[in-house]
Amino acid sequence: MGGNCQILLINVILYTKLFGDCFVKRNYGVQFLGIGSALPSKVVKNADLEKLFDTNDEWIYSRTGIRERRVVDKDESGLSLALEASKQALENSKLNPEDIDLIIVCTATPDMLYPSLSCMLQGELGASKAVSFDLSAACSGFIFGLVTASQYIYSGAFKNVLVVGVDVHSRFLDWSERSVSILFGDGAGAMVLSSCDVNNDELLGFVIKSESDKKLDLTLTNNNVHFADLSKNIEANFVKMNGKAIYQFAVDVVPSVVNELLEKTSMKSFDVDYFVPHQANKRIIDMAAKKLGFEESKVVSNIDKVGNTSAASIPLAIHHAILNKQIKFPCTMVLVGFGAGLTWGSALVKLNLKSV
Ligand SMILES: CC(C)(COP(=O)(O)OP(=O)(O)OC[C@H]1O[C@@H](n2cnc3c(N)ncnc32)[C@H](O)[C@@H]1OP(=O)(O)O)[C@@H](O)C(=O)NCCC(=O)NCCS
């Protein structure tokens, strides 16, 4: 009897390990309804940076794939970019602001520490029935935001969720120094997710990860007045980066997290229509695509025109590719992000947007 019980227990443990997801009965799936994006009007070309410090277009383009980026002017902000992208995504979804139940703004460079950018956006949009919060996962923000939104939808807690990725790094760069400021640009991207029948779920799988950046290879400080040291000058808050360490981190985690996702979803790269990596460096994108076996025609990239727009980069790249008629619907996409934290993650999605 005791032996039988033991065998039964081992079988249950094995079965749970192998088919664990099957036991979580879900009633809802996630459907992607619409997309939008926004860029500031001011274009800063590599040649413009030559006036600020010792650099040149050839060096920047060959090391990063970036030709130009956008930066906010005085009358623009994270809020104005998020608002524009969200309005487009709502219109594209054929939803009104009052239809939105939850707003998640993914950002590491909010206009203020509080109120949150999401609460400010909620007010400007007139999304009177929504609840809003910001999510901080740096350049992985949009992937973490999609995954977070999906869990609220799967549980039945919310029906329509607006996920916005927005960053304004230009306010946090040392424009007298060449190693970091060449990389970043400002922008916003937004998507509306809605609940649907569980059999039509368009989020086919995800993997998200984090670990402590103990060596502080990628930081943006939040220095401010300290009561214990009121006389001390406050150091400006600028992005600081060990470029080589972050490059190595990216070339390690991007292929490995995508491979983990493909294995989890029983897919191969040739089954997937498009590969949409975080737009940090064209050399990282090319290397990852090659390692993973995504041919060039499947790789979605706009880094030459926008630089690294952090949490906005993935929805911005998708939206630009749609507007440039590079995407055919319905399609499958592997999205992959990485960034400060350290954070990284990947999602496999189906996209069938009706009109953009
Ligand atoms: C930043 C990055 C482009 C630098 O490229 P790199 O090949 O590592 O370049 P290095 O820092 O070794 O610099 C090489 C040389 O170019 C010089 N250099 C650095 N920045 C320069 C610039 N903007 N213009 C011209 N020369 C530059 C360096 O001083 C160095 O000169 P030296 O050899 O005389 O000392 C690269 O490390 C990178 O992309 N890292 C990942 C960054 C990233 O993705 N961050 C975001 C994560 S979300």
Can you give a write-up of this model?
The N and C termini lie far apart (about 65 Å). Helix 4 crosses helix 5 (about 115-125) and helix 8 packs parallel to helix 9. Strand 12 and strand 13 (about 345-350) form a beta hairpin. This protein folds into two domains: about 30-200, Thiolase/Chalcone synthase (Peroxisomal Thiolase, Chain A, domain 1, 3-Layer(aba) Sandwich); about 205-350, Peroxisomal Thiolase, Chain A, domain 1 (3-Layer(aba) Sandwich), CATH 3.40.47. It has eleven helices and 13 strands. It has a five-stranded mixed sheet, with helices on both faces. The chain has a four-stranded mixed sheet with strand order 8-13-12-11, sandwiched between helices. It has helices at about 1-25, 45-50, 55-65, 80-95, 115-125, 140-155, 180, 245-265, 280-290, 305, 315-325; strands spanning about 30-40, 40-45, 70, 100-105, 130-135, 160-165, 185-195, 205-210, 220, 240, 275, 330-340, 345-350. The chain has about 350 residues and is of the alpha/beta class. The protein binds coenzyme A. Coenzyme A binds near residues 139, 179, 182 and 183.
Strand and helix layout:
Elements: H1 2-23, E1 28-38, E2 42-45, H2 46-49, H3 57-64, E3 68-71, H4 78-93, E4 102-106, H5 117-125, E5 131-135, H6 141-154, E6 160-167, H7 178-181, E7 187-197, E8 203-210, E9 218-220, E10 239-241, H8 243-264, E11 274-277, H9 282-292, H10 303-306, H11 313-323, E12 331-339, E13 343-351
Parallel strand pairs: 4-5, 4-6, 11-12
Antiparallel strand pairs: 1-7, 2-3, 6-7, 8-13, 9-10, 12-13
Helix pairs in contact: 4-5, 8-9
